[in-house]
Amino acid sequence: MSDSPSQQNNHETATFGAGCFWCVEAVFKRLEGVISFTSGYMGGHSENPTYEEICTGQTGHAEVVQVVYDSAKITFEELLDVFWQSHDPTTLNRQGADRGTQYRSAIFYHSEEQRLAAGISRDKENSSGRHNLPIVTEITPATKIFEAEDYHQDYYDNNQAAPYCRMVISPKLTKLGMN
After folding, report:
1. Residues 6 or more apart whose Cβ sits within 8 Å of residue 106
2. Per-residue pLDDT at 179
3. pLDDT at position 5
4. Domains of the chain in sequence order
């Protein structure tokens, strides 16, 4: 996967961290206009981190999902709307029972237009009244994505009977009207 947006036709790249990448991937892959997705690690200081290293919280990476989407079918702003709805952007380094910097809420932008749109969207969400606490989502430049191990890719669809999928991801998809 490229570190910069794919400009082929209307294809663009967006990268989001919103807790466990299994959840984020399950949500974004169900959106009309999303062409492909990769679970991985971004925003840290070590090369080629492993899942085990990420889980220590020492690498600085966030679990992310990088999506390639057709901007003629879904806009970056629409992806941002789903991002805000799909997790709690007010909890620092935590989503549900998952705790650590690897689970932080983050938008990794691939262009100046994405940076501006993400900031406007965060401000709008912050003033929407939907949250009792301020949003702590970081907006930072995209860096190299380190693809997660194969068993993390398309995890939910390959493991729907697993307890985490049944107890965390399935209810999230139901809440978002995606089941």
Report:
1. 16, 17, 18, 43, 62, 64, 137, 138, 139, 140
2. 76
3. 45
4. 11-175 (3.30.1060.10)
Structure confidence at residue 124 (pLDDT)? 96
Query: Any bridge partners for residue 119, and if so which?
Result: none
What secondary structure does DSSP assign to 35-81, as a single string? EEEEEEEES-SSSS--HHHHHTT-S--EEEEEEEEETTTS-HHHHHH
**Helix and strand numbers, DSSP H then E, in the chain:** 7, 8
Residue with tokens 């029972």: 97
4-36: b or e for each residue (b if 16 or more CB lie within 10 Å)?
ebbeeeeebbbbbbbbbbbbbbbbbbbbeebbe
Q: Are strands 62-70 and 11-18 parallel, antiparallel or unpaired?
A: antiparallel
pLDDT digits (tens, 9 = 90+) for 29-63: 999 999 999 999 999 999 999 999 999 999 999 99
Which residues are part of the catalytic machinery? 20
